[in-house]
Amino acid sequence: MSGLDNTGTALPRRTARPPEGMPSPRSLPPSLAGNPTLPYPQIGQALAELRLEIPGVHGCVLGGVDGLMITHNMQTDVDPSDLAALAATTYGLGRQVGLRLGQGDFQQSTVRNALGYLSVYAVSAQALLAVVGSDTINVARLHLHAPPVAGRLAALLDGVTPASQRR
């Protein structure tokens, strides 16, 4: 595309401009993916408890807001790295909705499909909890139990130094 119509006249272009009164987006924090100092056994236990507590949960992924997988307990053939990336994408969309509507920080988002659900919960400024479930899952029960699990995960991650900041 040259930006010209068939008569050679330049076509008008829409240019990006920052919305008035909107805060500039925050930069993403350093990644936790691959950090050997994370308490993986305790994180794994929290993920397993959620999967076993809610019938229909196929698995959970703890991923970074950067889209990189930290750990998982998926029980299906879904690639946990893909799920971490999808969770970050969901977070990005939810974060923008919160900014544009003045509704605050991202907390949770659920996508319902014909054969199941994906729910993404904020864990911390660095991490997200993604839960994949069947179409028979009790979503209300999931929304009741997942936020406390996200809180426990946040407590486990609190004070962990990102790999990029360790010396």
Kindly describe this structure:
The protein is α+β, with helices and mostly antiparallel strands and 167 residues long. Helices cover 33% and strands 20% of the residues. The protein contains three helices and five strands. It has a five-stranded antiparallel β-sheet with strand order 2-1-5-4-3, sandwiched between helices. α1 runs antiparallel to α3 (139-157).
Backbone structural class:
alpha+beta
- Major β-sheet strand ordering: 2-1-5-4-3
What are the segments in which pLDDT stays under 50 over at least 5 consecutive residues? none
Distance between the termini: 48 Å
Number of helical regions: 3
Radius of gyration: 19 Å
The coarse overall form would be globular
Number of strands: 5
Query: What is the percentage of strand-forming residues?
Result: 15-25%
| Average predicted confidence as pLDDT | 87
Main sheet characteristics:
5 strands, antiparallel
Helix content: 25-40%
Features:
167 residues, alpha+beta, five-stranded antiparallel beta sheet, 33% helix
Task: Write a brief caption for the model.
It contains 3 helices and 5 strands; from the N terminus they run αββαβββα. The model has no long low-confidence stretch (mean pLDDT 87).
